[in-house]
Amino acid sequence: MRTGKDYLSDQEVRWCPGCGDYSVLKQFTEVLALIGADPSQTVVISGIGCASRLPYYVHAYGMHSLHGRAPAVATGIKLANPSLDVWLITGDGDALSIGGNHLIHALRRNVGVPILLFNNEIYGLTKGQYSPTSRSGSVSKSTPLGSVDHPVNPQTLALGAGATFLARSMDRHPAHLREVLAASKAHEGSALVEIYQNCNVFHDGAFEQFTDKKSQSDHAIFLHHGEPITFGAELDRGLILEGSQVKVVSLAERSASECWIHDERDPMKAYALARMTEDLRPFGILYREDRPVFEQQVHLAHKDTRSFEDVLAMGRTWTVS
Amino acid sequence: MRTGKDYLSDQEVRWCPGCGDYSVLKQFTEVLALIGADPSQTVVISGIGCASRLPYYVHAYGMHSLHGRAPAVATGIKLANPSLDVWLITGDGDALSIGGNHLIHALRRNVGVPILLFNNEIYGLTKGQYSPTSRSGSVSKSTPLGSVDHPVNPQTLALGAGATFLARSMDRHPAHLREVLAASKAHEGSALVEIYQNCNVFHDGAFEQFTDKKSQSDHAIFLHHGEPITFGAELDRGLILEGSQVKVVSLAERSASECWIHDERDPMKAYALARMTEDLRPFGILYREDRPVFEQQVHLAHKDTRSFEDVLAMGRTWTVS
Amino acid sequence: MTKVLSHLVVLMAGDSGDGIQLLGSQLIRAAAQSGQDVRTLSDFPAEIRAPQGTISGVSGFQFQMASEAIFDPGDAADVFVAFNVAGWIKHQHKLKSGGLLLASIDGFDARSKAIAGVDANEDPLEQAKSNFQVLEVDFKKITSEALKDQSLSGKEKSRAKNMTILGLLTWLYGQSAPAMEADLQRQFQGDLGAANVLAFRAGYHLGETAEWTAYKREVPQRKALPGTYKTLSGSQAMALGLAAVARQLGRQVLYAGYPITPASDILHELARIRPAGVLPFQAEDEIASITAAIGASYAGNLGATASSGPGISLKGEGLGLAVMMELPLLVINVQRGGPSTGLPTKMEQSDLLQALYGRHGEAPMPVMAIKRTGEALDDVLLAAKMAVESMTPVMLLSDAYIANSAEPFRLPDPEQMRRIEAPKSDIHRAPYARDAHGVRPWIIPGTPEGMHRVGGLETEDQTGHVSYDPKNHQSMIQQRAAKVQAVTRFYGPLCVEVGESKGEVLLIGWGSTYGAIRTAVENLRDQGHSITHLHLKHLFPLHPEVISFMTGFSQVVVAEMNEGQLVQVLRSQTQQDLHFLGKTSGQPFTASELQARIVPYISAS
Amino acid sequence: MTKVLSHLVVLMAGDSGDGIQLLGSQLIRAAAQSGQDVRTLSDFPAEIRAPQGTISGVSGFQFQMASEAIFDPGDAADVFVAFNVAGWIKHQHKLKSGGLLLASIDGFDARSKAIAGVDANEDPLEQAKSNFQVLEVDFKKITSEALKDQSLSGKEKSRAKNMTILGLLTWLYGQSAPAMEADLQRQFQGDLGAANVLAFRAGYHLGETAEWTAYKREVPQRKALPGTYKTLSGSQAMALGLAAVARQLGRQVLYAGYPITPASDILHELARIRPAGVLPFQAEDEIASITAAIGASYAGNLGATASSGPGISLKGEGLGLAVMMELPLLVINVQRGGPSTGLPTKMEQSDLLQALYGRHGEAPMPVMAIKRTGEALDDVLLAAKMAVESMTPVMLLSDAYIANSAEPFRLPDPEQMRRIEAPKSDIHRAPYARDAHGVRPWIIPGTPEGMHRVGGLETEDQTGHVSYDPKNHQSMIQQRAAKVQAVTRFYGPLCVEVGESKGEVLLIGWGSTYGAIRTAVENLRDQGHSITHLHLKHLFPLHPEVISFMTGFSQVVVAEMNEGQLVQVLRSQTQQDLHFLGKTSGQPFTASELQARIVPYISAS
Ligand SMILES: Cc1ncc(C[n+]2csc(CCOP(=O)(O)OP(=O)(O)O)c2C)c(N)n1
Ligand SMILES: Cc1ncc(C[n+]2csc(CCOP(=O)(O)OP(=O)(O)O)c2C)c(N)n1
Ligand code: SF4
Ligand code: SF4
Ligand SMILES: [Mg+2]
Ligand SMILES: [Mg+2]
Q1: Atom of ligand 4 nearest to the CA of B21
Q2: What is the CA angle D274-D278-D284, rounded to 5?
Q3: What CATH number has the domain bearing residue D159?
Q4: What ipTM did this prediction achieve?
Q5: Using the 8-state DSSP alphabet, how is residue C514 labeled?
Q6: What is the value of pTM for the model shown?
């Protein structure tokens, strides 16, 4: 049996000391071990950014491609050889700024790749400009007085694009991250996994309330399919959905079974969860849907081909002797 | 008072005879007349495609830009001069295939432009390949055996991207189209107006059930804010929303007031409406939200600037005499 | 007695709804099949359905048929078939003085004149009579009479007018009526097929009835090379080429395209013929198509893509990545009129410098050009061979003219086609270790123990790891360049098209101007001039002998459809004085135009 | 007695966390302020925070100070300040034999050696002693003693080591301690400011205490031009240039950027200094930034954008559109090592051919290059002037070296700056009617009665309507080209940098190699050689006299940081034999390297 370490390449890891990317790399390689991935069948594709350095560190095939284009590269690989295990690594700038279009098309086509979106709400590699996920008012190198843009919500965007699997996890909760990554790989089709990742150099503490052990239980809701949505250090609070309003209720007053029961298969509920961008946010699998996988569909539709000789013979031909 | 004709340029209109674009052009110019648009303050920006020819035919300023890039061009114009009345004309390929990224960023920023998306579910100008909105199984020049892609839903995509105004209308219902166009212009910020437009050459009848007078009442639901959602030749049917299920009820059995009351401001309901991609579809304003307009925010944030002389004097300087 | 001609040029023009392209392709197939050589030139309106009857809505189709090998669709027309007044007005200057104008007078009525913007008082047909022989025929009436018993709509009946004209032309130019009828029946089923045949017959008999034997012309058969033929456009031939690549490489070709005129036809053709081993994929844009193709190549397919104009400009970043990673990739540029959206349906050769230099950094890659439909299949094979066997992206230039122009195409014997041998997925060599030709192995995901990473950052020699080392960078730039230079091993000897290897004038061309240049040079040689035609297939690296070959001539003229691109490249490599002969009007060179423009250089030498 | 030198070159190297860049800029500002001329060269690791203490994590800062005008940061260093062993190992070859090595021995301990990959048995400092003078100082200890009473964390204290070294260097090279202290206090408030001053003082006194007077050097003041100065990097100077454009044009400049190294610093600087009339906008990608800039230009702003490497490759389609529509647009390419992602933090001049030809179709546009920080502001103004006054996109080439290298910058008198006069929004002229220079009016949305449409399809002469007419196309291609050619009216006379207008060797360069080339040429001239330095600011169109100027020399050498790009362009325009001298290692030319490489041509002539 391989362990996580067996999936590390011989290359020196070069993220900043303390960067959240280290943990994601670790959980990723452990998941590879867990699912018994064959390194020679595994391909890790990334765009450009700090996160996108990850393929270099993984003992597998990999490509550090172009900024924003990894979904298209991965689509090409899957069309070339559907049986490869392709993973996609991207950042919030890579996936949602320059790469937004390829991302939404990969999602709606349901190309069979888990997409690990390292969201640190900043451009790390280019040294700290605000990103499409940066909250309004973000002070960054390019917005010293605070940004004015309304941020992209990766979850509603992906849902609106027709994604078949949506999840969220974080660098600082290894067990949860591993679980979500394994689930994303098990899903047939595109799986968007947003990972809250701390950039301790340019945007330290962006997700502290969700990741810090002290505050986590008050802000992070861990979803479980078929179970009531509850949170709190003592699991003493729950959510209910009233029309379009998400409300917090005390479980001292109501029983858990009266709460909103998480149903991964319910798109409306998924949308309600995806819209939670304030101090209370869901983690885990927000949504899941079964839909044929693109590359399989394409190959199926192209089964009925003609040999070169037959193609030559098509149409009106004549012979001179 | 100007009439619609006064907003036509002297250029010969060159769409195929019978194309739905003619009607959209007509309603557009009538709306310009209706709102008393000043041609010299009006700028019509488009990408590339049949629809994108429209600016040539409008007596106003205009640019036929690059395939997919009109939202970025329009953003630049608005940042240059926020007081101009900018309209954006695009097609399903232009906006949702190559231009998807610029579209979602214009929407989330809430740039102050109505975006008229002529959806004919085909690439017209390039002579009939399937487009991102073409239904699965579409037979086209590039998919003679039928397409396999799962289509983009422009409404859920826009909603997920954070659009503040979503509407749908059709070429064949002039009054409705005019009303929606006028409302989109009145909205402050980006307004996505999806217009079902018939390409009679490459995809004739794509929306017939919704646009044909005979079948329309059974398939098209015309929304009115604050009113029950009803349809049918005799307005004899209504909708109710049960969790994530949209259900049709007979108004013989229930009163209209028990139906789903359309609320433009409710994002969850908007999502439910946007998801209706089968034989029953909503027309009118699906969603509306007030949010600061990008170009105004940018200019506000940049009020506090320094004269060139002051900039020169910034930092540590020294003088040699 | 029917007059016998060695060459006949026919030009047909009318509304884009008139079915002229169909008529034309029907006729030339028959001609080709009966042994004449043919070349065609189509001219479409830019609009999908331009306003009927207008000048801008004119569709044109010209062909030359000949009893010997020809290379271009001819210059001035012997015969002009005018479907309407707009078609005549737009192209009348192309009819030879004294030539035959066959006018469909239903298209010359008052309404047609008004739409075409012809003054009501003018009578273009009367005017034509002073210069040309004019036959006025009411083809519409003849057609509707022929079809009066058919259960077709009026619109469908009037659409069959092209078949009536086809019938007359078939009779006039000695093609076989039964063969044509059979062909029509194969194509059009049911009522429509029957109606088409009726209309065809009406036209065929018209000549006889009207006693137009004086206008009959016969173009004798030539001795074509033995083989099986079909008529193909350049786009179709390129699609066949991709099919051949899949066969010869033994691996899938992922063809990732995004619709754009005139490149889209390759995608359509692939989707239509469905050749084994070629997977067509319509991506969301041109960047996605090239990067998906790159992904496919990494995974062991040959990734291929094609585009035109703006779409090619979007591929520069992807090309650079393929250069850096050293992966095979085939990019076809079907050039059109630029800059920007430009003239999407017109031909031009103005993307050469972009093909050579349109990437940031030192990013050389081989660039080839197709000179005619007949070679397109083999050129695609050669480009793919160079890409795969040298692990490099290759740019293959075509253009709107080749894409659309049809000619009799001799089908290759699959067993005789070029072979392509992919570098082995050899895990015992480092991923960037080079062989004698500077080529790295193609280690494909899925290969046990071959795991390695590739990317756009500078690559360490041998290992392919990231390297910021200055010396490595310089060395890798040079290694990549040397590898690309080494593709000249795939070139054959430098061959002239016609002429000697030393002489007075050397006329150099590339790409689709081949036919016009070759015809012009042959004509000039017939007139006794010392002139040689050299046509470059390889634009980068140049054939190693080109520069020294030029020194054998006192005048060297470079002719191309741009403002001087190849000539600039050649000038940078020689101190010889080179002349330039260009054109950027979206219309191909004609042989006579070239002849006239070359004359000054002939007298100068 | 302090030794007096006309030139002093100091190289500092250590970990990227050591604060070397800050130290360096502090020191050179003081030197510049006290009247020495200075030039700098920074060398960053590619990683944000490369692993501490490793070779790949080394940050370097070199500067030259001189008592006369200088043009480059110097070659071999007189003094090497090694913050750690990795810095020393990486750059030791740059210290002159006999030079001074000032080693911070806390960075040479066993752990540091291990991290840097130095064998535990080796003693680099001992080895150095055979070749250099070595001063070993435990700066860490000195700093922590100086700060022992400060309420800072240990980490903060050890970070102040650079201030201690700054103190010592201030003492060694005769800068003013009070001025430096005041400066530090202005920059760092509170405890940190106080600590920095304490550390600085400790270093300053160290020299005295240790009796290192023998190592003191004095570089006399030069007579700088009167004026107000500050030290600026090239990026900062370009940002100032954009501010100047807004002032001189009297219209808003929309600067639309997308982060990329090394171009992003222009965006950062604009966001920081907030000049009136310049609106910075961070777009979603490079295509959006250029097309937003085009939109802004259509609306009457000057649209500007900058990028590097891959980002520039993405802008080709937008450039073509601006060419076709004839709108002003300023595009700055801060070149870096290519191809593909390449070497993002290194310098190279390998995007020249792309700048000239990287668009489909015939799409000429002016291309300029900045040669040094001191001219960047005026070059930006000139590029903007050409763009606006000729209604054309203009590409301005810079590179990673200019972007990062700081020098004393004489602030312009705003009243004396170039004026920019926009073509009038003249509705009495047709939108594409041309003036005597071929320039169309700039009719701006909002102008009553000026309504017209622009676009990427070929444009009808005068009206700007869409036109598919062949003659119009050819004519418009030529009109656009002629208009671009006419920008030579904005060029001054052709001026050499140094040397005569006829002679033996002509050395031609462009862009950031200016300093090294100029220094090399001056040195060779001092040795009595006949050599002239010509530096091209305008790469397209070339200055009309360049080609004939070259004929005045028996040997012409073109030196550039690529594999031969400008030389190829020049060769295509002359039959003169041109030599090429290139480098693509991501490291700038040094003067001595150039000298050595030019010698063969000198002896040849
Ligand atoms: C075409 C192109 N544009 C811009 C860049 C510069 N660039 C590199 S990474 C990056 C953004 C990184 O942000 P993100 O994707 O969030 O990744 P992170 O570094 O935060 O992990 C940018 C803009 C590039 N390499 N290529
Ligand atoms: C960069 C680029 N790629 C491709 C094209 C070719 N092209 C022109 S319009 C079009 C799609 C048109 O479809 P749509 O936007 O739906 O507009 P429609 O013609 O249907 O109105 C394409 C692919 C182009 N002009 N530029
Ligand atoms: S810059 Fe931020 S995201 Fe990038 S490696 Fe450093 S800490 Fe991580
Ligand atoms: S092709 Fe279709 S969309 Fe385009 S003009 Fe014709 S009918 Fe309209
Ligand atoms: Mg990020
Ligand atoms: Mg469409």
Answers
A1: 8
A2: 95
A3: 3.40.920.10
A4: 0.96
A5: H
A6: 0.96
